[in-house]
Amino acid sequence: MTNPFSNIDAKLTMKYLGDFNSKLMKGAELLTDIEEIDVGTAAKQLVYEEDKLKLYRYKAETDKACGVPVLVVYALVNRPYMLDIQPDRSFIRNLLKLGLDVYIIDWGYPTQSDRYLSMDDYINGYIDNCVNAVRKSTKSEKVSLMGVCQGGTFSAIYSALHPEKVQNLITLVAPFDFSTNDGLLFNWSKTMDVDALVDAYGVVPGNILNDGFLMLMPFNLNIKKYIDMLDVMEDKEKLLNFLRMEKWIFDSPGQAGECLRQFVKDCYQGNKLVKGKLKLGGKTVDLGKITMPILNIYASADHLVPPAATKPFNDLVGSEDKTLYEFQGGHIGVFVGSRSQKELAPAIAKWLIQRDAPAPVKVAPVKATPANTEPAKVTEKPAAPDLATESKAVKATLIPKVATKPAATKKETGNKPTKS
């Protein structure tokens, strides 16, 4: 029998093992020196809060180039600081540098008191209250919604139910047509016993869903990335970049059971949104009522939300101004990849600035009379509505004038947000 070790270069092997050991020791030293993994560092101010939710406004970094404020609606399953993961790869900072006025919803971490919150509560309750808070804060008639992943689905539903409050709609890697079998997530969700899951936990722990996401690409997400980490362990900045992503991946909030139940059953399993059968708050969601400009962005290599789930949205809306944008990359690369920093944020800002204000409403001149010797002036832009009355629908007041909340009613159904 031939010796299987006869072709091994012993000296080269020992050198490799020595270098590897040195790299591990250096990496271990760096790891012990890192006291905090900083994420979401762009300056922002709390302007509204309700239950677990917090609404922030980012501090402007340049002169405003767009009068209509942008409200970012992130998914429920992860934390929104992905959009501001680090200063040199911050989707949010790039939007700010381009002159956008950006707000973002932080959903917080649901507890058992939130187990009965439904999609209706999140969309017609929380999102609507945040939209009204932004409108009041900026004295703007409408807002531009920017929805990410599941947040994009929610934003589209909101826009169909409340089109009068939405100037523009941007969706990023968001699922709409759930009939596709591209990608394991869509296959698994169609056969998931979500009733058993929700009934067992009430608020489904984030780590359960996170484990499922990791199993969509088991080798890359559970093994390969840690092997690749060895190549950056001697570089503190690269190691910090890796740790920031790890922090985000495993910082997974629990999911309010009833909302998750409806999202899985009505969307993944029933595909009711594109069929026109989805109901929220007693109303049917008709995507044809979305008539504002839309920018629908999908990622060509997305393993979580395949292009086939995103692209049909443009054919379902009633908008005449609609753009389908393909980004060459994956689901996360849309926000943190180097290409994204140079390409996507500038493209979004340009698109919004071009659609900043509604078309001017022109009033026909009035013929001069002895009592009126001058023609009426043309109104270039409709006057902003009085939002004082409408803002009463907002459950909590703007910060810092925080009103005392009424005592919560003790019901088995838990705490639900007030709907406007």
The percent range for helix content is 25-40%
Major sheet summary line: 8 strands, mixed
Query: What is the CATH architecture annotation?
Result: 3-Layer(aba) Sandwich
Low-pLDDT runs: 359-420
Based on secondary structure, the structural category is: alpha/beta
Query: What is the highest CATH level, the class?
Result: Alpha Beta
Enumerate how many helices there are, as a single number.
16
Name of the CATH superfamily = Alpha/Beta hydrolase fold, catalytic domain
What does this structure look like?
- By secondary structure, this protein is an alpha/beta fold.
- It has a single domain (44-359, 384-393), classed as Alpha/Beta hydrolase fold, catalytic domain (Rossmann fold, 3-Layer(aba) Sandwich).
- The chain contains 16 helices and twelve strands.
- It has helices at residues 10-33, 91-97, 119-138, 150-161, 184-191, 194-201, 206-214, 218-229, 236-250, 257-269, 272-275, 307-310, 313-316, 333-336, 338-354, 387-390; strands at residues 44-50, 53-58, 70-73, 102-106, 143-148, 166-172, 203-204, 255-256, 279-280, 283-284, 294-299, 322-327.
- The strands form three sheets. Strands 1-2-4-3-5-6-11-12 form an eight-stranded mixed sheet, sandwiched between helices. It has a two-stranded antiparallel ribbon with strand order 7-8. It has a two-stranded antiparallel sheet with strand order 9-10.
- Helix 3 crosses helix 4 (150-161) and helix 6 (194-201) runs antiparallel to helix 10 (257-269).
- The longest helix has 24 residues, at 10-33.
- The chain is globular and about 75 Å long.
- The N and C termini lie far apart (81 Å).
- 38% of the residues are buried.
- Residues 359-420 have low confidence and may be disordered.
